[in-house]
Amino acid sequence: MSHFIRRKNIDKMPGPYHMIGYIHENPDALRRTLNDNEARIEEIAERVMKGRIQRVIVFAQGSSYSAAVMAAPVFRYHCALPVHVLSASDLMYYAPRLVDRHTLAVGVSRSGERGQVIDIMKDCVERGAFCVAMTGVSDSLLAQNGDLTLLTSEGPEITFPKTKSVTVCAGLLMRLALALGTQDDESAARLRALWEMPEVLQRTLGTVEEQLAGLMPSITLHKMVVIAGTGTNYGVALEGAIKI
Fold this sequence. Notes:
Blueprint: H1 2-11, H2 18-24, H3 26-50, E1 55-60, H4 62-78, E2 83-87, H5 88-98, E3 103-108, H6 115-126, E4 130-135, H7 141-145, E5 148-151, H8 164-180, H9 185-219, H10 232-243
Parallel strand pairs: 1-2, 1-3, 3-4, 4-5
Helix pairs in contact: 3-8, 3-9, 4-8, 4-10, 5-6, 8-9
């Protein structure tokens, strides 16, 4: 019964969904974020090289964690340093073993106000780590506690399930992974693909609406949706489950 009540309430909502508009803003949001942070990415890579960093930890909660999981294979494939992608709640237990002055700790939160992420960032600072805040709010608590901030440029997003912030955080984390990795032909090709991704997203969004509309009659016959994926697509599957 609750399923039908929920559908009924949604059907009565006036106008288009905010989320659909945000989805179509993804290409520009990713393009802006990559352009705006290139100098900071290079600064982080230089400080990692000079600071004798021995490991990288990326931590987040919710959709920001999904974005980190999407970027994890790029870190593991290209970055020569050991990389740990953890939820903030899990890092609470591992911090005494993993975090010290030889650690690059990257905390991700779109609002910059996620309690557990901020608490872990403060703990990493106390342990002497080089701490980077990735957030969409320049004066947030997360930004105030980091040594350096990567500021995402997705703009306002009032819906609870995020779209633009997931895309820009995943893309920016991939850019960081490539900056920390060995600079060879393979990483150069992947970097070119990342810079081309806004155009790829634009083309995809231009064709996918009709395809989705064609799928709906068969999908709505079912009571359960299972989303599966490996590698980067595992993070996509996690986020898809949140959206649905």
